[in-house]
Design brief:
The protein is α/β, with parallel strands linked by helices. Helix content is 31%, strand content 19%. It has two domains: 256 residues, Rossmann fold (3-Layer(aba) Sandwich); 78 residues, no CATH class. Strand 3 and strand 4 form a beta hairpin. The chain is globular.
């Protein structure tokens, strides 16, 4: 520092000193250090390249986020990962980055995931994905809809449990905080104006909306059987929730469900405008050779016919028992994502009559046998008027283990069909 001294002759007079003493004292804080402003060392120190870098926020990929957050919700059950979860994560990453329509099609309204039950679809998409988005974009707004308001609220509680955990707050507590004014189980906001609102398919949604709408199991298996219930869900989707998206240009709808009927919500939207939806259908057992492309990593997964989707979680023994226990019709929809008509082409469901005791007489008797062979189901229709005694006395000589049942439907004469199969002989 340079100090210059003035000669005594240059000092101000007493009157001048008094005038300056009467003036208010103004103190200016130096904007630089002790080094002169034109010091090259000071200029280098203040240059952008030499300034101390601020630590970047922790930003894991969705897969890594789920693996770390898993123990908060499932401290006892270890996480078992599978390739189909990576495929779903790729599409969710596009949605987080606002690249979904750019990569998959500008005309798309949303994406449909048809996945078998108990394959982590709800936890991944409805719980972990939204709170992962908030780590980098806390202003994003979500709406969640399920067949049950109770189920939707349960997922909402799971999300808030993770947000309030020490692990989440340690990494992203400085990014946002939950609002005190709006923080209930089914609806909460954050300090950056992001919201998460959960409701039921038939519950109120007036005045609410979102940047991302997630429909997680919009109807259950019991509702799917009823035509009235199915049509009510589809109508509610068309008339109420289609308009709940905040910005149609960037907003995305996500439908997650197992197939339950040909005219469930997936069937409904695909029948009306399939070109506006990206459809990702994953069967428990591949019915044909297929190749699946990952939209972000660009890798491909090739499935051979008969290959299991998740052998560690859904082994063949479990799927076989489910097929028997649920019946082929329910299994085809929920696990294979290929819902079949409830009534077949030969025997109609409305023809069926069920009896606690066999009638004294009826026109036809049907025996349905399932054999352990590729022949599948063989039916024998006996065109004669059998009484109860004769019906109970009919037996079959069969090779191998078989199961069967007896039905007595009053179908019309045009449906009198006789089918015989080798190895299946009435005696």
């Amino acid at each position: 520092m340079k100090i210059s001294l003035k000669k005594k002759s240059e000092w101000p007079s007493a009157s001048a000193r008094k005038k300056s003493h009467d003036k208010p004292l103004i103190v200016q804080q130096a904007s630089h250090s002790l080094a002169p402003a034109d010091d090259p060392a000071d200029q280098n120190a203040n240059s952008p390249g030499n300034q101390e870098q601020q630590p970047q926020a922790y930003a894991p990929a969705l897969r890594e986020f789920v693996k770390e957050a898993w123990q908060i919700l499932e401290p006892v059950s270890p996480l078992v990962w599978n390739w189909h979860l990576d495929l779903i994560c790729d599409y969710l990453t596009l949605i987080r980055d606002n690249n979904f329509k750019k990569k998959c099609g500008e005309e798309l309204e949303g994406i449909i995931f048809n996945v078998p039950p108990r394959t982590m679809k709800s936890l991944l998409i409805s719980v972990f994905f939204p709170i992962w988005v908030w780590t980098t974009d806390p202003s994003r707004r979500f709406m969640f809809v399920s067949y049950s308001e109770k189920l939707s609220t349960q997922h909402s509680v799971y999300r808030r449990n993770v947000i309030e955990s020490g692990w989440y707050q340690r990494h992203w507590g400085s990014v946002f905080s939950l609002s005190r004014d709006q923080n209930v189980k089914s609806h909460y906001e954050n300090s950056r104006r992001g919201t998460m609102f959960s409701t039921g398919m038939q519950a109120t949604a007036t005045g609410m909306g979102g940047d991302v709408l997630i429909f997680d199991d919009p109807l259950n298996p019991e509702q799917a059987i009823s035509q009235v219930e199915r049509e009510a869900v589809n109508l509610r989707f068309d008339t109420t929730f289609r308009s709940r998206i905040n910005d149609p240009v960037t907003g995305v709808k996500i439908i997650i469900m197992q197939r339950l009927h040909e005219q469930d919500l997936t069937g409904h939207v695909l029948a009306r405008d399939s070109n506006r939806w990206k459809h990702v259908s994953l069967s428990a057992i591949a019915e044909k050779d297929e190749s699946l492309k990952f939209p972000v990593s660009k890798k491909r997964r090739r499935r051979r016919a008969g290959e299991l989707l998740w052998p560690k979680r859904l082994p063949q023994s479990f799927l076989s028992s489910q097929r028997i226990g649920m019946g082929s019709w329910a299994f085809s929809g929920q696990y294979q994502q290929s819902p079949a008509p409830l009534d077949g082409g030969i025997i109609r469901r409305q023809w069926m009559r069920f009896y606690r005791q066999l009638p004294e007489s009826f026109e036809f008797m049907v025996q349905s046998w399932t054999a352990p062979s590729r022949a599948g189901v063989t039916m024998i229709l006996l065109p004669a008027r059998f009484g109860r005694a004769l019906a109970e006395s009919i037996t079959c000589s069969l090779t191998g283990r078989m199961t069967g049942s007896i039905l007595a439907p009053p179908w019309p004469p045009s449906r009198r069909v006789m089918e015989n199969s080798p190895g299946l002989t009435p005696s």
